[in-house]
Amino acid sequence: MNAAPTLDLEPRPPRTRSRRPPRRRALLGALLLLLLLLAAVAVSLAVGARTISPGAVLAALLDPAGGSSPDTATVVVHELRIPRTVIGLLAGLALGMAGVVMQGVTRNPVADPGLLGVNAGAAFAVVLGISLVGITAPLGLAAFALLGSLAAAVLIGTIASSARAGSSPAVLVVAGAAVTAGLTSLTTLVLLGDPAALDRYRFWTVGSLTGRDVEMATTLAPLLVLGVLTALGLSRALDALALGDDVARGLGFRLLPTRGAAMAAIVLLCATATALAGPLVFVGLLGAHGARAVVGGAHLRLLPVAGVLGATLVLLADTLGRVVAPPGELEAGIVIAAVGAPLLIALIRSRRAAGL
Amino acid sequence: MTATAPTLPTPAPQDPTPRVREELVALRRRIARRATLVALVLVLVLLGLSLTALTVGSATVGPLEVIGALTGAEGTTSFVVLGLRLPRLALGLVVGAALGLAGALLQAVVRNPLASPDIVGLTGGASAAAVLAIAAGATGAAVDSAALLGALVAATLVFVLSGRGVTGTRFVVIGVAVAFLANGFLGYALTRASLTGARSAFFWLVGSVGSAPWGDVLRVGATLTVVALVLLLARRRLSALALDDDTARALGAHPVATRVVAILLSSVLAAVAVAVAGPIAFVAFVSGPIARRLRGSGPALATATLVGATVVVAADLVGQHLVPGTLQPPVGLITGALGAPFLIWLLVRGERRKESPA
Questions:
Q1: Percent of chain A having pLDDT more than 70?
Q2: Does A192 touch chain B (CB under 8 A)?
Q3: What CATH number did the domain enclosing B217 receive?
Q4: Which residues in A lie closer than 8 A to residue B327 (C-beta atoms)?
Q5: The pLDDT of residue A2
Q6: Which residues in A lie closer than 8 A to residue B187 (C-beta atoms)?
Q7: Residue-averaged pLDDT of chain B
Q8: Residue A111: inside a domain
Q9: B187, B333, B347: residue with CB nearest A189
């Protein structure tokens, strides 16, 4: 976007313009993303293994109780499509926002709850809960997921706060891979003795929206809302942190409480998302970077847009997975990995100049 | 992060005084002596571990009986030793050595200690392809070829995508992305398999040396020998890569070509080991750093090979005998559970010479 130097005598536009997308464009971009999300919701409700006409879907939606003698279309929409749409929406929203908070607090462009092992922590704790304690209630599983992701987040936070790992994306990413691999080993140890749990786990671990309970979504919604509010409340502190620790301190933010609150937000968001949809990788990364490209670096705008983008991503991936392999379906997590890995690579390649 | 060249002495002035030359010679001798000493100790440790592996078990066999069985005595003892314990030990040795060498080689030529086959997706590619093959009902050589193909595809992807900046952090982060991509394919293969298929693939994915036909041992051993010979012949080219590319070029080496060949060799080694024993976690990653610490200097491929073998045999022994309960966890679980904290500690504490600037 660098304009070539010219010799005309008109006053130059203010310099800030080139630094971040202009306000109008940002607003337009955000609106477009919101429309895209609505479209994704509509597609997710309308498309699936069984062909149902849009009119029938609409009729089913407008018929809240399902009527006295529900037809197949109504049952499919109410029992299958609405739950997975709701769950995809919530999980994507949470992960997108968690990605932004994580990148803000670590000041590291590759931070992503999946890449850094926070989701693996939640997954391990959930498997432990299922297999050893025999927990099946949504709230119990969520509690385990919270504990697990808290432990993993504290671990990763400690690693990231060491000078070397924090300054180098590669070291942080490898530390995340190590946390993930170690936790996966422990998870496997539990699962080897428990074939039934293994059978459930192999579908859950790829990140899938099928067969999830919508009751889970309503139970976990308060936690999710708490996480979203914490993240939004932190937006000014995160703006300040982006300028460096010293500047943030100079602006009157205390670092330790800020970091603690950010950690809490990340844990709440990731744990609910993982409990809902399994450990999804790349959603946070893609949401955060996409949002930054559209609305720039201010966190108050960045957070909601990243949430919208994350939700869109998960829903589209889920819908795509439903149609690419007709009789069966491809889990959302697999589709996201197939799309997300190339995007991460593109990101790294484009940051060549930035010294990565 | 300073980019000091590895501990090779700084190039001497054109006409080194005899004193400087003497010091250089003494330094080289000290390094060589330490290398020999470390190798000797590692071989002794390996011998000790091997003897333990052959004697200890559900039926304890005395050292003398072990020697008897090895030299041709008949009977149940010799079945236990030759039929069960020796193949397992041998597979652990060759697989560990292959992984250790593959890791140290890649770390050396990419000049980044984070670049090991298990981090940058080579073993991931091999596993995904092998599990797809297993789920499709393949066995033996077909699984091997699939793993090899997977590792090579992953290596090509990482190499091509990181472009001219093959050294440094870009290679690593792109490799991690490729590893996650491979992981997605793996998840796909697992969900498509039948429950029994998924279960056996799942066991395989943990990494185990428990079932060890002699054919497997020979295949890995032969590959290891060939690669080691090639590396031995090309050791001057390899040590030139320890300098930066411009210096290496000035010395008449071809850094890019050498690097391509080395990455290829590392992929082949890792793929063969993975095809036979599954992706045993972290062995490739930790062998290099451990070897460098023991040696105190320089790229230490031979030492890393010994370290890899030691780690796998020791971890397998721990899994068989030291873990309480009836479940004997396969070796990959032990290296995974112990390797992760060690790796993180390495990352946080850091080696003295950790990273060359990209």
A1: 79
A2: yes
A3: 1.10.3470.10
A4: 192-193
A5: 43
A6: 202, 205-206, 331, 333-334, 337
A7: 81
A8: yes
A9: B333
Structural domain span for residue B213: 19-349
Residue A150 has pLDDT above 70, yes or no: yes
User: CATH number, domain at A225?
Assistant: 1.10.3470.10
Enter the tokens of residue A248: 């943030």
Region B27-53: what's the mean pLDDT? 87
B161, A345: Cβ pair inside 8 Å? yes
Put simply, whether B327 touches A (Cβ < 8 Å) is yes
- Answer yes or no: is A104 within a domain: yes
pLDDT band at A277, cuts 50/70/90? confident
Query: Using an 8 Å Cβ cutoff, are A74 and A63 in contact?
Result: yes
Reported ipTM: 0.71
Whole-angstrom Cα distance, residue A232 to residue A287? Answer: 16
Number of domains present in the structure of chain A: 1
Q: What is the pLDDT of residue B358?
A: 32
Interchain proximity A185–B340, CB inside 8 Å: yes
Q: What is the pLDDT of residue B229?
A: 92
> Comparing C-alpha atoms, which of A257, A237, A265, A285 is closest to residue A92?
A285
Contact B313, B89 (CB under 8 A): yes
Q: Do A348 and B177 touch (CB under 8 A)?
A: yes
Pairwise CA distance, residues B296 & B318, whole Å: 28
CA distances from A57 to A64, A123, B159 (A): 12, 34, 48
Structure confidence by residue, pLDDT tens digits, A293-331: 888 778 888 899 999 999 999 998 888 888 876 666 777
Q: Please judge whether B114 and A195 are an interchain contact, meaning their C-beta atoms are less than 8 angstroms apart.
A: no
Q: Is A208 exposed, middle or buried (0-12, 13-18, 19+ CB in 10 A)?
A: buried
